[in-house]
Amino acid sequence: MTTAPLSVHGVVKSYRTRSVLRGVSFEVRRGEILGLVGENGAGKTTLLRIIVGVLRPDAGRVHLTGRSGYCDQEPQLFPDLTVAEHFAYFALAYGIAGNTDWLAARDELLAWFRYAKDVNQRVSELSGGTRQKLHLSLALLHRPDVLILDEPYLAFDWDTYLRFWSYAEAQRDAGTAIVIVSHIAHDRDRFTRILELREGRLQ
Amino acid sequence: MRSAYILTAAAMTLRELARRRLVFMLALFLPAAFFAVAYATESNRLVPVVFAAAAERVRLIEELDLALLFISIVSTGVISAFFAASLIQRQMDANLRLVLCGFRAAELITARLVVLLGIVVACALYMWLVLAMFMGLELFTRPRFPAGVLLGIAIGALVYGCYGLLVGTLFRRELEAIFAILVLINVDAGWLQNPIYYQNARSKWLIEALPAHYPSQIAFLSACTSEHIGRLVAYGLAYGGVFLLAAVVLYARRMRVSR
After folding, report:
1. Cα(B28)–Cα(B42) distance, integer angstroms
2. Exposure check for chain A: N or C terminus, fewer CB within 10 A?
3. φ, ψ for residue B203 (rounded to 5)?
4. Cβ contact A92–B4 (<8 Å)
């Protein structure tokens, strides 16, 4: 039996009196792109934040194995640092700065998402779409086994959006388990499975 | 803790700060402007004062000297507290992401502390030099211990810098932090620690419990007397240490992630 790299068991979460998640359970296997959908406020972002460890559940548990990459809705970057400095900073955080493989991964991401010309620009000087590219690239830099993405392409133009999906599908084929929160209707064909959060439960 | 992580985080923080040139220009210009205004407006009349740490004697001190010493302590306190709060508050989410990716919260706050210490030393030296410029040779001839004045200014910057770290961890938004810093420094360093107010104060214990007490006494005693300041230095450092410890504990709680 193959162990799923991500499994969620009976996760419950409330904000004061408002119950957001009421016993959510699922697992994601290698080579799978799981789509997580639901109305605004359904608890999708809360669920992802619990999975990556930013929030603690009131009950239940999350089992995550291997390296994980997380990309939140809003770009979490340092406005006064350059693109290159971000890559170096996060390479150290991931513990991969000791060898030069991360430089190849960086160059590959810069080329794939077509913003190599911005490598020495500060984040405050980048367009919204390019910030989003950097934000996503930092989640991919260490070639994670599990990718958790919360609407990662909202600021992308159409071409970059398509390139994102090509990249995601290549990662899926390489065995990465991917969870993507999405609101875009025509994304649905790209998911291996879709789970809908409604009233704190998975449908 | 891993030194490479601390040094890299400190270097990145310094780069971020260095790229905000206007902040540095204001930090250099504003205190010098306040010194100039005080120099142009305060008189040289002698005023009788009692220093809290040497309360057995009434001393006659020039009003201008008092004003300049005060401005140096208040200015370094304000600048280091604002820098410290900003070091914590800015990009809290991006720093949390670094923790998720493998940094430890202790490494990030240690890096900020390293940067803060650099700011404290640079700020105290700058303010001391400006003070020397306005007081002239008197700073080096009349006071018994000019290095003690520098130490008092530096400890004031350190205590309020650690207070700024605490404020930065307590409040997520800048306006609340600005109020918390300005109100305390204004009342404490800018008003209650003035020996003119202190000598007739009803609750002297309260004034002595405030953050600027030990730094201002170190600076005053060094500038105007030959009293020993060793005990005051130890108390001042301990005071800053309490703020620092509280800031570290709160920061670690805010940066806590489940692995």
Report:
1. 22
2. N
3. -120, 75
4. yes
For residue range B58-117, what is the model confidence (pLDDT) as tens digits?
A: 888 888 888 888 899 999 999 999 999 999 998 899 999 999 999 999 999 999 999 999
Structure tokens at A20: 């957001």
Among all chains, which residue has been given the structure tokens 């007397």? B225
Q: How far is CA B8 from CA A69, A127, B108, B110, in A?
A: 21, 27, 10, 11
Instruction: Identify the H or E element spanning B59.
Output: strand B54-62
Nearest CA in chain B to A67: B101
Contacts of B29 (CB under 8 A, 6+ apart): none
Distance CA B45, CA B194 (A): 16
CB distance B89 to A73 below 8 Å: no
3-state secondary structure (DSSP) of residue A114? coil
> Angle at CA B41, nearest 5°, toward B38 and B47?
85
Residue with tokens 């309360």: B55
By the CB < 8 Å criterion, does A16 face chain B? no
Residue (of B61, B39, B38, B62) closest to B51 by Cα position? B61
Which percentage of chain B shows pLDDT scores above 70? 96
Q: What confidence score (pLDDT) does residue B139 get?
A: 64
Residue B218: CA atoms inside 13 Å, Cβ hemisphere, count?
A: 27
- pLDDT, residue A183, reads 79
Cβ-defined contact of B94 to A77 (cutoff 8 Å): yes
Cβ proximity of B232 and B148 under 8 Å? no
Chain B contact set for A152 (CB, 8 A): none
Could you give the CA distance from residue A111 to residue B108 in angstroms, rounded to a whole number?
Answer: 31
- Cα of B25 to nearest chain A Cα, Å: 17
Q: Are A141 and A133 in contact (CB under 8 A)?
A: no
ipTM of the complex: 0.93
Identity of the amino acid at A88? A
Q: What is the pLDDT of residue B24?
A: 86
Instruction: Please report residues of A whose CB lies closer than 8 A to that of B12.
Output: 78, 81, 85, 89
Distance in angstroms (rounded) separating the CA atoms of residues A146 and A66? 7
Q: What is the pLDDT along chain A (203 residues), one digit of tens a residue?
A: 457 899 999 999 999 888 999 999 999 999 999 999 988 888 999 999 999 999 999 999 999 999 999 999 889 999 999 999 999 999 999 999 988 899 999 999 999 999 999 999 999 999 999 999 999 999 999 999 999 999 888 888 999 999 999 999 999 999 999 999 987 767 788 899 999 999 888 87
